[in-house]
Amino acid sequence: MLEISHIDVYYGDLQALWDVSLTIGDGEIVTLVGSNGAGKSTLMKTISGLLKIRAGYIDCDSIRLDRLPVHRIVEQGISMVPEGRRIFPQMSVLENLEMGASINPARKVRQHTLKRIYELFPILKDRAKQLAGTLSGGEQQMLAIGRALMSQPKILLIDEMSLGLSPLLVQEFCRVIKGINKLSKLTVFLVEQDVQLALSMAHRGYVIENGRIVGQGEAKELLCSEEIKEAYLGMEKADKT
Amino acid sequence: MAHWKKLSILTLILALLAIVPLVMELGSNVMNVMVTLFIYIILAQSWNLIGGYTGQVNLGIVAFFGISAMVTHFLWKAGAPIYLAIPTGSLSSVVLAALIGLPTLRLRGMYFAVGTLALAQAAQTIVANIFTRSVSMPGSFSATYSLMPRYYLGLIMVVIAITVVYVITRTKIGLAMVAIRDDEQAAQVTGVRVFKYKVIAFLISGILAGLAGGLYAYVRLSFWQISIVFSPSWTFDALLAVVIGGAGTLAGPVIGSVFLVVISEIFANTLGQAHLILFGLLFILVVIYFPYGLIGSVDRIHQLITRVRK
Amino acid sequence: MNAVIQTILIGIVIGALYGLVGLGFGLIMGVMKFVNIAHGSFIIIGGYIAYWVFTLWGVDPFLSIPAVMFVMFFMGLILYRLVLSPLLKYPRAEMRIDKSLLVTFGVTWILDNVVTMLWTSDTRSIVTAYTGTTFNVFGARLGLTGLIGLVIAVLVAVALQLLLTRTYFGKHVRAATEDSGAASLSGVNVQRTYLISCGIAAAMAGVAGVVIVSCYSIAPSMGLSWLLTAMVVIVLAGEGNIAYMLPAGLILGLIQAISTLFISCAYQQPISLIIFILVLMFKPNGLFARGR
């Protein structure tokens, strides 16, 4: 279980998160929704250790995460698919995946994990020798997710998965992630701009506004709540038309 | 501190510096140290302008110092009066600065740094290959040698250098320079013509380094090997003075130079070459841990304390 | 005709060495985005260690390479721990580069003075029983030491390439080079990768130093000119193109060798500077850059 308790996060002197608390139970899919600049990505970066907290704590199965360097957090079983995918363009697809298995226990079983990931995304197997920079956007997203899974995480953090992808591809990714969640009991924490999509995938959701958590609940309830409909879904529709 | 207060302190110091040698016999040792100090201050202010205010790391400032020292020396020897020789020397520094600055200042900072370093190295090699014998002014010059005019010329040049830096940093050019240092991309986006202002800062810095070199040629009449005017130690000393005193401040390089000259006087005789190593260590420590210089850090701590008291 | 072959041979021998010099320097610059001005001094120190081992115990310079690499590797680790890693606290890359320029310039200052104190400022070289030995290649002469130096340079370049493409550590280095943040998110210990890379770069500087002291000569003041050579090689190869370092070094070596037919070899440094400026003006991404 991942527990985030009363954290404050700053960019330099600018405070970005105020007193944020949330919990993610084992095997859950939890999502964090909110508008642009509300602090979603900031929270993701904080959990993965890229940003440091000034107050509160983050704790995973009773191990304090917030003092650990980034790679040690990966060792604790928390792996992130970063916003914008951030694959290594000058390295081959296979090498990118190998990088995901950098931590020791994962490195030993990497052949096995690799097979599983090729089953999830067969196209990555065909492209294994190709430079990652030559992949299409969707393939790069597959690679980024595959790379994150290579470390055999307990918890997968996904930052803005749907960004720049076609609706069809997004549906495909949703199916895959739900599948992994069900089959291997992988906990997933999603940050999404597409509120409808995120809430339809998740079991539970949190709402963040201006760096503060302003609501939470079962995903289905949130999807029906008037405030959410008005604040996010309405806006989404207006954007699309 | 109030503005007029600073100004009056400055005037007082200047007046003291101007009067004391007239009324007191300081002895050639002290006078020599003072003239050396003046050279350091001018050179440090030159580095401060391009490195401290504009944020372009110049690792070969000695190239501009050296070329001016050489040009001044040979013009003076050829019969030109010193008040013409030094400005001409300084002009040659500007030409050299344009030569290396125009191709490298367009690119990222490290190319400028390495380009200037390479320029200094190349200049030293060329000069060492051309002038293999010692170079000196005719005997008549050393017979009438007096430190007094050198002292006062140096003092005037220090005043000029500080005034130039003061005035520039309070104009639009100065604002652009600081903007470039703080965030070059942001400056570019907001419409600052980055390249233009880098070049301007560098050329003015070249003039100042040239003045220091000219003064040096006026002070020192003979060179066993004239290539020593291109020795990297000049660059290092200028950098050390600026960094210790606080880069990007008006007083920093002055205080840093005083510190450097005084400490050198104390340690050079007792420790020999080892004192250079100590200077190197001090330099690294200050760059890593005191980004505002030793003096600047003291100032900051002071500010913090007064803020807490309030 | 012989003179032409002779010139080309000289160019290739010294060019391979230039490639070696560029490789170590380029490794730190590529991976950490730090400019290590002290790289030239590291080369010189490597040369002096071999010189010392040779004069004190009579150990052949080329046989002392493993020992020199070992010592220099640790010097690289110390450089990283004491001087470079504290700079990582600066958030902006340009700031880090500027600071690295300053501190490593300070390191150069210290090392050059230490070297002068230890070995005086005289020019030194190692003269072994086989130093004067030459072969006849198409009527031109090729020195044995030069040939060994050439082989070593190529071996080191190949070894580095294999390390970077075939080992897990090498892939970590490349990942950290491309995107250090994404690398650490993948579980790469970026700090450790930096540390070891710095050690490897210093060890490579050591190898270059041994070749230089065996084939040519060293003096404490030569560090900066070797640094300039390294920088020209980097500029020719294009920043971060480790694979092109050796070819770039060869090109520089050939240009210099050919230039000595017309200009005294004492002016090689100014020639390097001119090449540096010309490449920056007309091909800022390196000779091998495909029209970007």
Give me the secondary-structure topology.
The complex is a heterotrimer of chains A (241), B (310) and C (292).
Chain A lengths: L1 E10 L2 E11 L4 E5 L6 H8 L5 E8 L2 E2 L5 H6 L2 E4 L11 H8 L3 H5 L1 H11 L1 H5 L10 H13 L5 E5 L7 H18 L2 E6 L2 H7 L2 E6 L2 E7 H6 L1 H15 L1
Parallel strand pairs in A: 3-8, 3-9, 6-7, 7-8
Antiparallel strand pairs in A: 1-2, 1-4, 4-5, 9-10
Helix pairs in contact in A: 3-7
Chain B lengths: L2 H21 L3 H27 L8 H16 L4 H23 L4 H22 L4 E2 L2 H5 L3 H23 L2 H11 L1 H6 L4 H26 L2 E2 L8 H14 L6 H20 L2 H16 L3 H17 L1
Antiparallel strand pairs in B: 1-2
Chain C lengths: L1 H31 L6 H19 L7 H20 L8 H27 L14 E4 L2 E4 H23 L1 H11 L1 H6 L4 H26 L7 H15 L7 H15 L8 H15 L10
Antiparallel strand pairs in C: 1-2
Helix pairs in contact in C: 1-5, 1-8, 1-9, 1-10, 2-3, 2-4, 2-8, 2-9, 3-8, 5-6, 5-8, 6-8, 9-10, 9-11
Rg over C-alpha atoms of chain B, rounded to the nearest angstrom: 20 Å
* Major pleated sheet of chain A: 6 strands, mixed
Q: Helical segment tally of chain B?
A: 14
CATH architecture of the domain at 27-231 in chain B: Orthogonal Bundle
Number of helical segments with 4 or more residues of chain A:
11
Q: What fraction, in percent, of the residue positions of chain B are helical? A: over 70%
Alpha carbon gap, first and last residue of chain A: 40 Å
Return the CATH topology of the domain at 27-231 in chain B. ABC transporter involved in vitamin B12 uptake, BtuC
* H and E order of chain B: HHHHHEHHHHHEHHHH
